[in-house]
Every structure is written in C-alpha cells, then in structure tokens.
Design a protein that fits this description.
The chain is α/β, with parallel strands linked by helices. The chain has two domains: 113 residues, 3-Layer(aba) Sandwich (Rossmann fold); 136 residues, Rossmann fold (3-Layer(aba) Sandwich), CATH 3.40.50. The protein has a ten-stranded mixed beta sheet, with helices on both faces. Helix 7 links the parallel strand 8 and strand 9. The radius of gyration is 20 Å and the shape is globular. The relative contact order is 0.16.
Length: 287
C-alpha cells in the first residue's frame, strides 16, 4: 500500500505547514498528488431567514473572500512545488456548516489514500469543541488519517509503534509495508493482552504479523506485551518511553482516551514528534 493521493485540509496557520511537510514526505507513486482543501463554515440557511436584507452583502463578501482564498491556496501549491518536484497539486474551497463532513466528502471525491491533519492546539477539557476528530473522520470516511503536531515538523519516520491484539490487522501491516519502501523503520509491536483473550490466538496474531513484516524488509522488529490496565493511556506512555515517531491505531478502540473519550493526539503536547495514524477500513481476519 502506498499513499498516492493525499488530502490536506488547510487553515493557513502552522498546521498547514506541518501537514504539507508530512504530506510531501509520504506522497509517492507514479503520479503522486496532493489536494488542498479549505473549508469555510457556512451559516445555516435558517439564520438567513431573519437577515434576508443582508443577503446581497454576504454574497459580495463571499466572492471577495473566495478570491483571496484561491490566492492563498495557490501560494500553498507553489510552496509544495518548491519543496519537491513531480507532485501534482490541486485545491478546492468547500462551504459547509460541518467541517469534518466536508473533508470526508472531498476525500471520497478524489479517492484519497490518506488525509493529513495538522494540529497545534487541543480541547483536552472540552473535546466536543473539536470541529474535526481524526479517529471519527477515519472511521466514517474509511480513509486513513494522520494527525501531526508542530514538534514533528523536522523529524522523519523511524520508530513506529503498532498495537496488535488477537485479531490480525491486514490494514496495519499493509501500511507499514508501504512506509518501509521509503523509510528504514524500527518497528515496535505492542501486544495488547486483555482479560478474556485466547493465548493461542494472541500468539498466532503476533507470529503472523512478524512474518508478514519480516518477509518484506530487513527493518528491525521487536515486541513487548502490554497487559490491559488503562489501555490507551498505557499505549501513549509506551510511545513516550521509546520516543516514537509514529503510532498506528484503529479508530475508536485505540484512539479514545479518558472518560471524555478524547482523541489520543489531544494528550500529546504541541512539541511532540509522535504522529498518530488512524487506519481506515480494515478487513480484520482471524489470525
């Protein structure tokens, strides 16, 4: 698996710079493409019922705003061309009251392999304030979503943490094997042992994962066993312990953290180099 078509939502802040940098690092294939999308929050039509006499004013403002947005998107596309030749760039503007839905729709429209989200802030106390939740976006769109903080701007991929359980994850293995075409990886498998797990299935899952990875590369592979306590907190602690560059997780089960069900990336500081990749649809099969 390779990331040939990458979608990057842009807000023209440091988030955009971080996401573009990582998108360029990961984009590959015969005709690699990065598509930039800016979503403007549209006021619901119901509100305009009470402000119809402002309609012409708003339309005029929208036209001027779209013209400026196109200029800024062109600048971002030029920035990509300066950093690396051979990447096809395109851009679009979406108007929607639901930012996350607009991103998912655009990703489906262009058949994206990956969505890259730059994130330099967090709503750790009020996660519902997030207009885009990476794990939810990955789950609903079926497309893998990479969340990156500014601390990862100058880092490359080396140490990759991959939680595994009693069910073999084909999608995780495919993604790792795709990454190994471009990076020399230190792969750290984290075997998650839950109370009711069948030891034989756990062992088989671990062996199959190691076999599918070792058959394709000389990258280093190691594993540790994690007995479930506070699972996702423990996963995050392990990432800090090994100074992980990338954490590959399933959306939902391995991304929600704390009683408010925050996304795991919200617990990473702005200067963290650990990127979180929530995989899309996965045809999980019994190991």
């Amino acid at each position: 698996m390779s990331f040939n078509t990458i979608l990057i939502p842009v807000d023209f802040t440091v988030n955009t710079r971080v996401a573009i940098t990582k998108g360029i690092q990961l984009c590959e294939g015969a005709n690699p493409e990065i598509h930039l999308v800016h979503v403007t929050k549209r006021i619901s039509s119901g509100i305009f019922v009470y402000y119809q006499h402002f309609a012409n004013y708003f339309n005029s403002e929208n036209e001027q705003g779209n013209s400026r947005l196109k200029e800024r998107l062109q600048e971002c596309a030029g920035y990509i061309a300066e950093l690396k030749n051979g990447i096809i760039t395109s851009y679009s503007i979406s108007h929607s009251a639901m930012v996350e839905k607009a991103i998912a729709e655009k990703a489906g429209e262009i058949a994206a392999d990956l969505i890259v989200i730059g994130k330099n802030s967090q709503h750790s106390l009020l996660p519902f304030l997030n207009t885009v939740v990476p794990s939810r976006l990955a789950k609903h769109s079926g497309i893998s979503v990479l969340t990156v903080k500014p601390g990862a701007l100058s880092s490359t991929l080396k140490t990759v943490v991959v939680p595994i359980n009693s069910r073999y994850s084909e999608k995780k293995v495919d993604i790792i094997n795709g990454l190994k075409k471009k990076f020399y990886l230190n792969i750290r498998l984290l075997l998650i042992v839950e109370r009711d797990d069948d030891p034989d299935k756990l062992q088989t899952s671990l062996v199959n994962t190691c076999r599918m990875l070792k058959n394709r590369s000389l990258d280093t592979i190691s594993y540790e066993i994690l007995h479930v306590g506070k699972k996702n907190w423990d996963i995050l602690s392990y990432c800090r312990k090994v100074d992980a560059d990338l954490l590959i997780v399933h959306p939902g089960t391995e991304t929600k953290i704390g009683w408010l069900n925050k996304h795991i990336s919200d617990e990473l500081p702005v200067n963290s180099k650990t990127q979180v990749l929530a995989v899309g649809q996965d045809n999980l099969s019994l190991a």
